[in-house]
Q: What sequence folds into this?
């Protein structure tokens, strides 16, 4: 049916099941948090590399302060996500 509707533009389709139980939904949330953490860690590394790659005479500039501040804030976000604990969550 999809191939008829989309023709050559259709590549593939995959059935995605939504989690049904609370436990499955919590597991899905944990996975999304890990994915978000990975993205934030990549961004933090980019910002830190940008700052580290600046010549010394520019590391005290306003732009360098913003870059460094962003890297620090991103690291704080990663640290906060590391602190998320679902161990005490139980469902009836």
A:
């Amino acid at each position: 049916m999809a191939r008829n509707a989309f023709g050559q533009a259709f590549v593939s389709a995959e059935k995605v099941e939504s989690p049904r139980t609370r436990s499955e939904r919590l597991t899905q949330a944990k996975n999304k948090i890990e994915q978000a953490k990975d993205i934030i860690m990549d961004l933090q590394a980019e910002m830190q590399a940008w700052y580290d790659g600046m010549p010394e005479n520019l590391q005290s500039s306003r732009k360098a302060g913003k870059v460094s501040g962003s890297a620090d804030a991103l690291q704080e976000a990663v640290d906060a996500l590391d602190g998320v604990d679902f161990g005490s969550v139980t469902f009836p």
